[in-house]
Request: fold
Amino acid sequence: MNRFFIAAALCIPAACAAGDPAAGRQAFAKCASCHQLGSPRSGFGPHLHGIVGRPAAAATDFRYSEAMRGSGIVWTEDALRAFLKAPGKVVPGNAMRFTGIGSDREIDDLLAYLRTTR
Ligand code: HEC
Reply:
C-alpha cells in the first residue's frame, strides 16, 4: 500500500505519460472479482502478484487451461497490453471470461497499477 502511494506522489508528468496507477487501481475493479493483486493467492482467476515479467501460467495454486499453459508467453508490458485488449486473440481458447478493454488509456493505467507489485 505504502509503495503505491509513494509511486503516485513521485509521479512527475513525463513519468505519468505511461499511465496513472491511481486510475489503474480503480480500473482494476473490473478484474478484482477474479484476481488478487495484493497477495499471492489465487481465486477464480490466478493471482496477479508480480505479473509484469512473470511467465504465463506461473501461479502454483491455480489450475490453468491447456491454452494458457501452452502459450509460452512471458507477461511483458507489451504482451499484457495485447492480452487485455483481446484475451481470446492472444491466447485462443483461454479460460478468462473477459471481453477485453477498448481504451488504451485505461490499459496504460492498469499496467501502471500492475507494476506497483513488481
Ligand atoms: C471472470 C473472471 C476474470 C476477470 C473479470 C478477469 N480475469 Fe484475468 N483470468 C481469469 C482466469 C480464469 C484466468 C486463467 C485463464 C486460463 O487458465 O486460461 C485469467 C488469466 C489472466 C492473466 C494471465 C495470468 C497468468 O498467470 O498467466 C492475466 C495477466 C489476467 N488474467 C489479467 C486480468 C486483468 C488485468 C483483468 C481486468 C482487466 C482480468 N484479468 C479480468 C479470470 C478473469
The chain has a mean pLDDT of 89. The helical segments are 2-9, 13-16, 21-27, 66-69, 77-85, 87-90, 104-115. The domain at 2-115 is CATH 1.10.760.10 (Cytochrome Bc1 Complex; Chain D, domain 2). The CA atoms of residues 21 and 112 lie 5 Å apart.
